[in-house]
Records
---
Amino acid sequence: AKAAGGNRYEIADAEADARAITRHSLTMALPMALDRGEFFIEYQPLVHLGDGSVRGAEALVRWLHPQHGVLGPDRFIPLAEDTGLIVPLGRWVLEQSVRQAREWREKERAGDYTGPLRVNVNLSPCQLTHPRLVQDTVDILERAGVEPGALCLEVTESALIGADDEVLKPLRRLAEMGVDIALDDFGTGYSNLANLRRLPVSILKLDRSFTRGMQHFPADPVDQKIVEGIVSLAHSLDLAVTVEGVETGHQAEQLRVMGCDTAQGWYYARPGPPDRLHELALVDAS
Ligand code: C2E
Ligand code: CA
Ligand code: CA
Ligand code: CA
């Protein structure tokens, strides 16, 4: 559909499109989309709260649909999970992201960027239980010549709740190799905090809902207490805390004071092309 006029028309048009695109048609188009190279990845910087330096980025996949334009992952990841396409799609995202990390590291070595820049990649539960996860990851790292420490795999808290040792084994092997494992959307899954010790994770990614509680001054006192509690527990277990959804400097400052280690959000940068990270991570010439 063509957008002829101003924003109003475009918005109405997008809504009509959204209704017209059925789950069914998107599901049918997914396998071809991978073959045709319609997916692309945007990267959102991860910023060290202590000194404001860029430490890496999270890879977020998008689908440039030939008729419907750019679709966000919430539109198609659930469909890919239902059909099993998430396995080859997830492998593609991992491969692209690791190659990107190599490129960043090369710039670093050349002295153009502050380092070390790392890449975070989301893993869906189906990938977690796939028998080739460890071998695929090892192969991808080796082919790209990237050390495991440059990769962080993000797994949601809900995927690991009640996970038995069989499910945790591959993650544990990856962690032993030096790949970081982050527990994503932490605080939404009602997991037993004592359970954390059992998981091979080194980073807690606090869900955006907590960051929202820091939007106003004074911050929501309950959220504040919860975040402080999680941070002190995490640090006592030697886990780093990353916060997502930071939209204002005020939130960033509060979360820094509360001891959070790393932040991600629109305040720093929206997800974007990999070169944007280069700009943000430019070595300060002064
Ligand atoms: P997530 O892992 O929790 O990723 C963070 C989401 O928050 C991203 O949405 C990001 O664009 C958005 N975000 C970042 N900063 C802000 C902010 O300051 N304010 C607000 N309101 N939002 C912010 P996105 O890109 O739409 O991704 C949605 C979800 O899709 C991700 O949530 C992740 O669970 C999933 N996803 C994305 N890429 C992949 C992938 O390659 N594989 C898998 N399995 N899942 C993916
Ligand atoms: Ca994530
Ligand atoms: Ca998250
Ligand atoms: Ca999320």
---
Amino acid sequence: MLSVEGLRSKYGRIEVLHGIDLEVHSGEIVTVIGANGAGKTTLLRCLSGVQPASAGKVLFRGDDISRLPAHRRVGLGLSQSPEGRQIFTNLTVEENLRLGAYLFSDARVDKDMADAYAMFPVLREKRNLSAGGLSGGQQQMLAIARALMGRPNCLLLDEPSMGLAPILVDQILDVVRTLRGLDVTVLLVEQNAFAALSIADRAYVMETGRITMAGPAGELIADPRVREAYLGL
Ligand code: ATP
């Protein structure tokens, strides 16, 4: 589904991704874990096309999308739900969802909206309220629901658990799990390594712009180096 080869990226003259290789297969939940500043957000931004890569390739469903602008990637089925949510707080919940479907004008938008409300009943209850009035967890649900309105084949999720109380983290993880049943492949970036490894099929560990470990999530969660560095065990 998604294949990254030798990806490098810079802010000004400082390179922060030093040649990333990773694969996400259709139907998988893959996570990239790593400390604050490791480059996880930059990686997702390069994949969604909002940050330029200075070298390397991104292949999506067999096509080289490395040079495509972000909106073209969304059109191909690759969507990002950004860190910090970035919902439009002065618009209503429903207006935010409609923006996620801006590529489409067909009758399926109403069905997608109904599906989103079935997945997140609290969003239906609050559909006419300003999104700025939602709690942190509800805003995160709205960000994911909005990304799903773009009918992605592959969803890039940046730190969906950030800033949430543990019970809400569990709810968000349940949502990510249900995406598997909807045929949405997920690349999940998380600092909450335990949460991410507990729902992922495979995982990559990122340290200062490089992938340093990779494997089935169940193996990494048991690996002494991961346990010490990322799980605090
Ligand atoms: P976090 O979880 O805190 O977002 P991260 O793993 O996602 O961390 P990035 O945000 O990708 O890491 O940052 C990688 C490196 O790039 C860090 O050293 C960071 O300071 C630097 N960086 C990030 N954004 C910028 C920017 N806009 N300009 C310059 N440097 C940046």
